[in-house]
Amino acid sequence: MGFYAATVVTEVLGVLWIGIWLFRRFEVRPALFDRRLFRGMLAFGIPMAGYELGAQVLAMGDRYVIQSLLGAQPLGVYVAAYNMCDYVRLLALSSFAAAALPTYSRIWEEQGAEATADFLRRFLHVYVAAASLVVAVTAATGGEVLAVLASAKYREGEVVVPWVIAGMSLEGAVMVCGAGLYLRKRSRLIMLLVAVAAALNIGLNLLWVPAWGITGSAAATLVSYAALLLASMLLGRGTLAVPLPWAAIAKFVPAAALGWWIASHIGFRADALTALRAVRRSCRSSCRWRWPATRCCASGCAAQHRHWLADWVAARTLKDEDHAPAARFRSDVPRHRRRWRSAGWRRSALCGQPAHLRSPPGTRPAMRAGRRQRAGAARRAAQRCRGLHVR
């Protein structure tokens, strides 16, 4: 009850503030009332109320199907994931459509159809890039975000996040791709399209939820929004043909899909030690470069500091029990790969370990001594490498 009361109070205060601002800026008199304009506003606005009702059914109708077929627990997981995607849409994607509608309406009235189509083409290019990034990031981090914002038991809702956020990104482009419907104020047709999409969503839920669970419901959401976008674009072409940015779609959508696939197959915490070991091995393999000068710099100086950087990152990012494996990075290389190194080089490599592994928390003199020791070892290694021949 408190939530709804707070919502009502907030809305009333917002309407009062807007009313005060309007009365101060504009002159309001009964003689200025335009009945023709008022009738036109009612003719456009009443069907849009039906549009809002259909949009709510489209967004929430699947929840009743899940409740009746699967139960309360899968419904809670689905609602948590869906609401998270809705928050992302409100923060990252809704502002595009809110800014596009008044802008292209003004361009249509002042500059005509050609300028409006050019603006919408450029707008869609930017929207495709932004929406691809938002969808990829949300799909890749959905499980972690759900575990942090809700709890770990809602993490299984990450399977529906890619479907839902992709559908919401398509819904954000309806007002742009179907600009012809909004420019001609065909609100009745818009309401009918949303109602058909809502009915399609419920029908697909009845078919797919028993077979695929909440994933089927999320897929039904994506298909319904895609159908709404396609129908709006086709029916609006009679007034204004909006060119799709196929070049942007060909660039950004596959890149976003690849990024999401790579990120979803990486366990960030579990693979931290493995990644650091790979960095260390790649640094050691650089010592086999062909050119003596490059080999001298890479093996005598740069590789040493890369090794120290990997140990430093491991000491500060991994848990305490992982410090011991991090300190043994140097010993996991086969002996035949480090046979050519002298005892002096092995001493110089040991000098590259972080301070907490080779001495207690040191003072500034100890740190300066360590730097001098590493610099001397690097110079000696460089001098030995100068006499090597090209292999």
TrEMBL record:
State the membrane topology.
Multi-pass membrane protein
Major location (coarse): membrane
| Annotated segments matching region Disordered | 354-391
Q: Where in the cell is it found?
A: Cell membrane
Comp. bias regions, Basic residues: 381-391
Where does the sequence pass through the membrane? 6-24, 36-59, 122-140, 160-182, 189-208, 214-235, 242-263
Q: What is this protein called?
A: Lipopolysaccharide biosynthesis protein
